[in-house]
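Quick one from the shared queue. A colleague (R.T.) flagged AAA+ ATPase domain-containing protein as missing a structural entry in our internal table.

Convert sequence to structure tokens.
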Amino acid sequence: MTEQKIELKMIRMSEVQSQEIEWLWYPFIPYGKLTIIQGDPGDGKTTMVLNLAAKLSKGEALDENMKVTEPVNVIYQTAEDGLADTVKPRLELAGADCERIIVIDESDKSLSMVDERLEEAIVRTGARLLILDPIQAYLGGGMDMNRANEARDMTKKLGALAEKTKCAIILIGHMNKASGNKAAYRGMGSIDFFAVARSVLLVGRVEGEPNTRAVVQIKNNLAAFGHPKAFALSEEGFQWIGDYEITVDEVLGGIAPKANKMELAKQMLRELAETHSAVLSNEIFDRADELEFI
């Protein structure tokens, strides 16, 4: 069987009109591009994204670098949580305007990343943010996420949709258990998911702070890397902390942040100063060693 010849088409760069990147959240989530938010199960990825969606639905910003001037329509697709017993209560707790949070009904047919209903829904609702949670649930029945060519082809098509509609698209992904690997290789499936995304955020626990979750950017093709952020999860719910001193290695390795150790060391010295008129240096080092500061 003879393959159909594809007509050669060329574009002169002189014909291309330059455009500036528009940001939903600088420098973490660009409009018209793909962003991946990944982390271990239970570390708060979905909770953070739902609180982001809730803020946007009211025209409010989650972070000071998020320039929101009016309420935003958000399409949120999930294959892991029930809409009535999990997603809706979380949105209500976050104070969302649920009229602006839209879900594509998958009762007749499951969605995939290349489903034409995605574009139709974005256009019809004017959504500026589309969230697919998690990545692997929206691959389509015949796609192997570990095959580089298949992963790249599907994510490129989704990226083209983002660019065409100027909608920010977030893919939420779980981390694999390959400890010791670089963050880029800890995402589920082919590295090509990581390659096509323009921004990738890692959400993880903070050693020694059981209620705190760090948000660290591990890829950015469009701007300088953003400063790490953090949020807290407690019985009172979600609380945004903002700037936080922590590194990718500290998040992945379960290492207490150096900044936290510094504050604890200062506290130790203050306590020693309050209870002792004089302290030998070796006593300070012994105490620091006991508290694992050094």
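Residues 259-290 form one domain.
The radius of gyration is 22 Å.
Added to the table.
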